[in-house]
Design goal:
The structure holds two protein chains of two kinds.
Chain A lengths: L1 H19 L4 E4 L16 H6 L1 H4 L4 E3 L6 E3 L2 E6 L5 E6 L19 H12 L14 H5 L2 H4 E8 L2 E6 L6 H4 L10 H10 L15 E7 L3 E6 L12 E5 L4 H9 L14 H5 L4 E7 L2 E6 L10 H10 L2 H8 L4 E3 L22 H10 L6 E5 L11 H14 L3 E5 L3 H8 L7 E7 L6 H8 L15 H12 L3 H18 L2 E14 L2 E2 L15 E2 L2
Parallel strand pairs in A: 1-10, 14-15, 14-16
Antiparallel strand pairs in A: 2-3, 4-5, 5-7, 6-7, 8-9, 9-10, 11-17, 12-16, 12-17, 13-17, 18-19
Chain B lengths: L1 H28 L4 H6 L6 H11 L5 H13 L13 H36 L4 H14 L3 H15 L22 H8 L4 H36 L2 H8 L4 H38 L5 H10 L3 H29 L1 H6 L1
Helix pairs in contact in B: 1-13, 5-6, 5-9, 5-11, 6-9, 7-9, 7-11, 8-9, 9-11, 10-11, 11-12, 11-13, 12-13
Classes of the chains: A alpha+beta, B mainly alpha.
Keywords (chain B): Cell membrane, Membrane, Transmembrane, Transmembrane helix, Transport
InterPro entries (chain B): BPD_transp_1_N, MetI-like, MetI-like_sf
Protein name (chain B): Peptide ABC transporter permease
Chain lengths: 530, 336
C-alpha cells in the first residue's frame, strides 16, 4: 500500500511538472496530405497550407485575412517610372530555421532570392529539374514571359526587370510559388547529393519550423523563436490529416483538433447553432459560371446569351446546390475583390422576356448541350445538380438541354476546345487577389482556346484589361476594371452564377483566427485560450 | 513438399508478367493524364504540355514505355511518383505496415469470432443462436462500410467518448518509427500509455474492416461443419464414445477448416478493397488511400508500381495459404 501511494505521489508530481512546462499545441485537422514541402513545384492549396504558409516567407506578403500586399522579406521597394524595374530592399537580420538536419551560418540575403527564382526560370539551373521541373505557378502566372532578369545589386538589394509593366507583380510575389528558400541549405544538399531533401525537409524563414512528417497521418511544426515577425503565441502546430469531412467534424467536436477546413455544406446549418463551436465564414474569392462558346452559332449572338441568362433562376440554384451557403453572382469577380462594380445591373430572372428575346434573335426549337463537371469544386459543389436545374429553366423558355459530362481531366481538356459544342459549367478561385487574375486570365483574348472557356475576345474589354495591368495607380486600375465589367455584362459571354462562401468551424478556444479570402489556412498570429 | 513449393513458385512468373501488363495498361486506359490534371482550370499551353509529357517520358510510343517500365521493374526499380517525386518503393513501404497491421487485426477479429460462431451455429443447427448468428452475418456482409464506420464513430467516439475518432495514436505521442507497426513501435518507445493509445485507435477500424470477412468466415465455417458433421467418420467417432467436444473440435473442425482457410486467403483481396474506404474514414495512413489518390491524380508510376507490389504481396500470401493447405491435407501436396 505504501508503494502504491508513493507511486501515486510520483505520478502526480510528474503530471504537475508537465503542466507547468505545458506547451500550447494547436491541432489542425487538415483535409489531405501535402505533395511535398517545396511549394514551387505544386499547385494544390493543401500543399501550400503545409509548406509555404507555416515554413516560408516571401518578398511581399498578403496581410492576414485580406488580399492587401504588405512588405515581407523585402522591407520596401521602388518601381521605375515605366513600371518595368522593381528594386527590392531586403530586411536585415532575418534568420533561417535551425533544425536537426541544418544549421544556418548566415542570415537571409539576396542570394536566397536569386536562388529561389532562378531555379524556376532557368532551364540550365542545376535545381531546375530536381522536382520534375513542374513549376506549376511560375509558368501558370506567365512568369517566364514577364520576367526579363533577377539580379543581385548587393547583399540586401535585388533588382527585378520585367519585359513590360505588370501591375499585379507585387501580388504575384506574395504567392506561394515565390517563397524564399535557403541557398546555403540547397548548396549543402547538393554537395551531399541529397537534392530531394529540399522537398522533404524544408528550411525557411517562416513563423513555424518543420519538425516531422509521418506520411498521410501527421505533420509537426514548432514555433520559430527567431521569426522576423516575432515568436508565435502557440508553441506547437500539428496537422492531423483527416480526409473525410464528417470525421473531421467528429474530431473537432471530440476536442481532437481545434480547427477544420471544408465542412460538408449540409452540416453548416447545424454548426451555426452549435454552442460548442465557433463558425467563421467569408465570401470565397471565386466565381462559378456557365460559359457559352461565343464562337459557335447561335451563341455568337449576344441576344441569345442574354435571353438564356434571363432564363436561369439563380436563387433556386443557390438554395439547392449551395444549400444557402453562397451568393448570386452578377460580375465575373467576387464582391470582396477591389474594383468590384456594384453598379452593374444583373440580367433579371424573367422567362417571358427571355422567350421574347430568343424569338427576336430568330432562334426556334434550340437544343443545346450543357457540360457538367464530374467533381465537386469550391465554386460549384454539385455541377450535375446545377445542370439539371438549368436544364429545367431552359425548358421553360423552349430550349432543350442535353447534359454531358466527362471524367475530370478529360473535361478540362475538351472544355478548352474552340469548337466545343455547348455551354460549359466551370469556375475559378483567385490566386493573388488581383482582378487581372480573373478578368485577363478568364476573359482576355490571349486565353481563347485555353483558360477563356467562352472563347470570347472583345477588343474593347481586352484593351481595358491589358491597359489596367500596365498602370500601377490603383485608382486608375479600379476605373478600368469597373468599365470592363460593364462591357462584360452587356456582352454576356457567361451566365455568372454564384460565389460560394467559405466556412471554417473551430473550437471556442481559438483566438484571432482570420479566414483567408484566398482560401488558404494559416496559423501565424493565432492563439488558443487555456 | 519442396517440389510442391518450386512448382508453385514457377507459376508465379507468368502471373507476375501478366500483372505488370495489366497494371501498366489499366491506368492508361482511363481518360485524362497527369499533366492536364496538374494544370487544372487554368489550362496549359500546347508547348508546355509537350515539354512536360516529354519530361515524364509519356510522349514515347506505348510499347517503348512498357519496355522501360518492365526492365526497371525486374531490376527492382518501381519508378518515381509524379506527385511527391519520391521512389514508389519507399512510398509504398512507408505506408504498407499501417495497412498490414490493420488487416492483420481485422483477420484475427474475423477468425476469432467467425470460426466459433460458425461451429456453434452448425452444431446447434436451427437453434435461436444459429438463426441470429446467420442473420447478423448476412447484415454484416451487406453493410456499406462508409455508413457502418461513421455510425460507429458517432456512437462510440462522439456520444460515448470510448474510442478516439481517427488516426493511429494520440498526437501526444511522438516517437521515431522503427518497424512501422504502431503496436510494436509504441511498446518500443517505452512511453507510458502509448500502447494503450495505439490499441484504442485500432478498435473501430478493425471492427469495420473485419465485419465482411467475419460474416463470410462464419457462414463458410457453418456450412463446412454441417457437411463434415454428416460424414460417416463423425458417426464412428461418436460411436466410439468420444466426448461431443472432442468430436467437434478435433474430428470435425480439422476437416472443415480446409475450405475455411481458402476463404480466409481469398478475403485478403476483400480486405484490400475494404481498406480503401476504412483508411479514408479513419485517417489511417495506409496504401489503400494512397492508391486511390494516385489514381485520381493519374500518377502513372505510383499506380502501376503500387498495383505490382500489391499483386506480389497477394501472390505471396496465396502461396503461403497453399502451403498451409498442403500441411492440413497431405493429399493435396502429392496430387500435382
Amino acid at each position: 500500500m505504501k508503494t502504491m501511494s508513493r507511486l501515486l505521489a510520483a505520478t502526480m508530481l510528474v503530471a504537475g511538472l508537465a503542466g507547468a512546462a505545458h506547451a500550447k499545441t494547436f491541432v489542425y485537422c487538415s483535409e489531405g496530405s501535402p505533395e511535398g514541402f517545396d511549394p514551387a513545384p505544386y499547385a494544390a492549396g493543401t500543399t501550400f497550407d503545409a509548406s509555404s504558409k507555416p515554413v516560408y516567407s516571401r518578398l511581399t506578403e498578403f496581410e492576414r485575412g485580406t488580399t492587401n500586399v504588405v512588405p515581407g522579406l523585402a522591407e520596401s521597394w521602388d518601381i521605375s517610372e515605366d513600371g518595368t524595374v522593381y528594386t527590392f530592399h531586403l530586411r536585415k537580420g532575418v534568420k533561417f530555421h535551425t533544425t536537426e538536419y541544418f544549421t544556418p551560418t548566415r542570415d537571409f540575403n539576396a542570394d536566397d532570392v536569386i536562388f529561389s527564382f532562378q531555379r524556376q526560370n532557368d532551364k540550365n539551373d542545376p535545381w531546375y529539374s530536381y522536382a520534375g521541373g513542374t513549376w506549376e505557378y511560375w509558368t501558370g502566372m506567365d512568369m517566364p514571359n514577364l520576367v526579363k532578369s533577377v539580379e543581385k545589386v548587393d547583399d540586401y538589394t535585388v533588382k527585378l526587370t520585367l519585359t513590360a509593366a505588370n501591375a499585379p507583380m507585387l501580388a504575384n510575389l506574395a504567392m506561394d510559388f515565390a517563397s524564399i528558400l535557403s541557398k546555403e541549405y540547397a548548396d549543402k544538399l547538393a554537395a551531399e547529393g541529397k537534392q530531394p531533401d529540399l522537398n522533404q525537409l524544408p528550411v525557411g524563414t517562416g513563423p513555424f519550423q518543420f519538425v516531422a512528417y509521418e506520411k498521410d497521418a501527421v505533420i509537426r511544426y514548432q514555433a520559430f523563436a527567431d521569426y522576423w515577425g516575432g515568436k508565435q503565441k502557440i508553441d506547437d502546430l500539428v496537422f492531423a490529416i483527416t480526409p473525410d469531412a464528417s470525421v473531421r467534424l467528429q474530431k473537432l467536436k471530440a476536442g481532437e483538433c481545434q480547427l477544420m477546413p471544408y465542412p460538408n455544406p449540409a452540416d453548416v446549418e447545424a454548426l451555426q447553432t452549435d454552442d460548442s463551436i465557433q463558425l467563421m465564414s467569408q465570401a470565397g474569392l471565386n466565381i462559378g459560371y456557365l460559359a457559352y462558346n461565343t464562337m459557335m452559332k447561335p451563341f455568337d449572338d449576344v441576344r441569345v446569351r442574354k435571353a438564356l441568362n434571363m432564363a436561369i433562376n439563380k436563387k433556386a440554384i443557390i438554395d439547392a446546390v449551395f444549400q444557402g451557403t453562397g451568393q448570386e453572382a452578377k460580375n465575373p469577380i467576387p464582391p470582396t475583390m477591389w474594383s468590384y462594380n456594384d453598379n452593374v445591373q444583373d440580367d433579371p430572372y424573367d422567362p417571358e422576356a427571355a422567350k421574347k428575346l430568343l424569338a427576336e434573335a430568330g432562334v426556334k426549337d434550340l437544343s443545346m448541350k450543357v457540360w457538367a463537371m464530374p467533381v465537386s469544386r469550391p465554386y460549384n459543389p454539385n455541377a450535375r445538380r446545377m445542370a439539371e436545374l438549368i436544364q429545367a429553366d431552359f425548358a421553360n423558355v423552349g430550349v432543350k438541354v442535353e447534359i454531358v459530362s466527362y471524367e475530370w481531366a478529360e473535361y478540362l481538356k475538351r472544355g478548352q476546345d474552340k469548337a466545343r459544342d455547348g455551354a460549359l459549367l466551370q469556375g475559378w478561385t483567385g490566386d493573388n487577389g488581383d482582378p487581372d487574375n480573373f478578368l485577363a486570365v478568364l476573359l482576355g483574348c490571349s486565353g481563347v482556346g485555353g483558360s477563356n472557356r467562352a472563347n470570347w475576345c472583345n477588343e474593347e474589354f481586352n484593351n481595358l484589361v491589358v491597359k489596367a495591368s500596365k498602370v500601377s495607380d490603383v485608382a486608375e486600375r479600379t476605373k478600368l476594371y469597373e468599365d470592363a465589367q460593364v462591357i462584360f455584362k452587356k456582352e454576356a459571354p457567361w451566365a455568372t452564377i454564384a460565389h460560394s462562401t467559405t466556412y471554417v468551424p473551430m473550437s471556442k478556444a481559438v483566438i484571432d483566427y482570420k479566414v483567408d479570402p484566398l482560401g488558404s489556412h494559416r496559423f501565424d498570429g493565432v492563439d488558443i485560450a487555456e | 513438399m519442396f517440389g510442391f513449393i518450386l512448382r508453385r513458385l514457377g507459376l508465379l512468373i507468368p502471373t507476375f508478367i501478366g500483372v505488370s501488363l495489366v497494371a501498366f495498361f489499366f491506368i492508361r486506359l482511363l481518360p485524362g493524364d497527369p499533366v492536364l490534371l496538374l494544370a487544372g482550370e487554368r489550362g496549359i499551353s500546347p508547348e508546355r504540355y509537350a515539354e512536360l509529357m516529354h519530361r515524364f517520358g509519356f510522349d514515347l510510343p506505348l510499347w517503348q514505355q512498357f519496355i522501360t517500365y518492365f526492365t526497371d521493374l525486374v531490376q527492382g526499380d518501381f519508378g518515381t511518383s509524379i506527385s511527391t517525386k519520391k521512389p514508389i518503393f519507399t512510398e509504398f513501404f512507408t505506408l504498407f505496415p499501417a495497412t498490414l497491421e490493420l488487416s492483420f487485426c481485422a483477420v484475427i477479429f474475423a477468425v476469432v469470432l467467425g470460426v466459433p460462431a460458425g461451429v456453434i451455429a452448425a452444431v446447434k443447427r436451427n437453434s435461436w443462436f444459429d438463426h441470429t448468428a446467420m442473420a447478423t452475418a448476412l447484415v454484416g456482409y451487406s453493410m456499406p462500410i462508409f455508413w457502418w464506420a461513421l455510425l460507429l464513430i458517432i456512437v462510440f467516439s462522439g456520444m460515448l467518448g470510448w474510442t478516439p475518432v481517427s488516426g493511429r495514436i494520440s498526437l501526444m505521442f511522438f516517437f521515431p518509427k522503427v518497424t512501422g507497426f504502431m503496436l510494436i513501435d509504441s511498446l518500443l518507445s517505452g512511453k507510458a500509455g502509448a500502447f494503450q493509445s495505439a490499441v484504442s485507435h485500432l478498435i473501430l477500424p478493425t471492427i469495420v474492416l473485419g465485419t465482411i470477412p467475419l460474416a463470410v468466415i462464419a457462414r463458410q465455417t457453418r456450412s463446412a461443419m454441417l457437411e463434415v458433421l454428416g460424414e460417416d467418420y463423425i458417426r464412428t467417432a461418436k460411436a466410439k464414445g468420444l466426448s461431443p467436444f472432442r468430436v467437434v473440435a478435433v474430428h470435425a473442425l480439422r476437416n472443415a477448416l480446409i475450405p475455411v482457410i481458402t476463404t480466409i486467403g481469398l478475403q485478403i483481396g476483400v480486405l484490400m478493397a475494404g481498406a480503401i474506404l476504412t483508411e479514408t474514414i479513419f485517417s489511417w495512413p495506409g496504401i489503400g488511400k494512397w492508391m486511390v489518390d494516385s489514381i485520381f491524380r493519374r500518377d502513372y508510376p505510383a499506380v502501376q508500381g503500387g498495383l505490382v507490389l500489391i499483386a506480389l504481396i497477394v501472390m505471396g500470401v496465396n502461396l503461403v495459404v497453399d502451403m498451409l493447405y498442403g500441411l492440413v491435407n497431405p493429399k493435396i501436396r502429392h496430387q500435382r
